[in-house]
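COURSE: Structural Biology Practicum
ASSIGNMENT: Worksheet 4, Part C
STUDENT ID: 0417
INSTRUCTIONS: Below are two proteins. For each, the amino acid sequence is given first, followed by its structure token string. Answer the questions at the end about the second protein only.

PROTEIN I
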Amino acid sequence: MLDQIKERLNQVRNPATGAMLGSENRWQTVTLDNGKLTAEYNRDGISPTEKRTIETEIQKTLSDLLEADKILIKTTSTQSQDVFKALDKKGEAPAAQPATQPAQLKAGHGTIGNKKSVPGVGKIIAIGSGKGGVGKSTLTANLAITLSKQGHKVGIIDADIYGPSLPMIFGKREEKPRSNAERKIIPVESYGIKFMSFGFFINENDPVIWRGPMLGGVLNQFLFDVDWDGIDYLLIDLPPGTGDIQLSMIQNAHVDGAIIVSTPQDIALLDAKKGVEMFKKVNLPIVGMVENMSSFICNHCGTEHHIFGEGGVAKAVKELGVEMIGQIPLELELRTGSDAGEPYMTQEKFQDRPVWNAFLSLSEKVENHFNPTPAQPKAGFFSKVLGLKK
């Protein structure tokens, strides 16, 4: 069947030139794996509107061979400026599409423009760390669930393009996002949390070999081309480090605050401090630092063990002039829950355990940071005399 598919793809016309894609040698790879087609073509000189015309024609010509959700079309561009020039000249609005269309990423270069708010979102919180392996994604997922328990609508962007893990943590590894009639990607929902991850668009075993500007383009799409309407808190689970993705986010979106995650050990703190300084230099408010894996409490004897050291983050926040807003201890169930797609804070049986209470405390501090409780006025002299205030 692959030969038949290739023959039909070659006959699809390029609306920009009128020639067939095959005669222009546009097709780069066409593969069929377990009934799923992945086809990639060069889109130099093809505008976004023309690209949509091509994709619609591809689905039409293959409709008797494959279902729409079994077709993934990718594009590459060596001259991405042609795409934007073509769009500027035409000034055409995207045509509305039915909600049954599979969502697709625009694998093109990101652009830096004026900062703008994400439609439908209250507050955006970036969650970062200087290095990997500090449990940032697990912390992000459970913080989101805890905020949701407090009555908030919460969304997450899994911006760790090289190692997306939220589909596993939320038990949605096989999910494929769809797009709505306005060509907005519909976020996947699990346990009341709406989230979007690059992991939905690639096979788990495929390496991502993309340069920074293209990664920034994907993040922009996750921010502005996903239907986040009605979200109170949008958490962005950033990749480790202080590189392109972090800068793309800060330069393009109004981010309200950042949380830095670190373990107590010195080598993790070295990198976490760099993350704090990066956010300071770009004038992004820092909500505070969270000490993850702060200690391990034995289930059998109740003894607390400081496996990764003690007091490191408390010392660091004093040096950096930021607040320590949480200490999350280790529990075996925190790890097993993430691996099984059942985050810790979704399981009521863990109520009043150290990790449960730590997440409740963290979420309250986040909430108080953005929605501070008015301070009670001090009792005046006459109030005390008259016995109205103690």
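PROTEIN II
(use this one for the questions)
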Amino acid sequence: MTHFLRSDASPDGYTLEDILIVLRKDILYRATKIMDDPRPEARKVLENNIQIMSLLGEAINLAEDSTTILNKAFGPASQKDGPRIGTE
């Protein structure tokens, strides 16, 4: 069973891209809080956050691509009884 992601056992769960988008938004919010802090620690954390946001952007694109592939091949998940691919 998944904790956050949509599945047969959790039909009201989130898509992977939804979770990643919220994470990116939270990181961006936190980054704005430290962007004017001149201390080296704050600058390094800000640099790390910028890199993480970039990687999350790539992950979001991959997750959206997977959703597009599944929707095109098998229709929306809400229209299926059981998983679209894989095993139960």
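ANSWER KEY EXCERPT:
Q1: The chain is about 60% helix and 0% strand.
Q2: Residues 16-70 form one domain.
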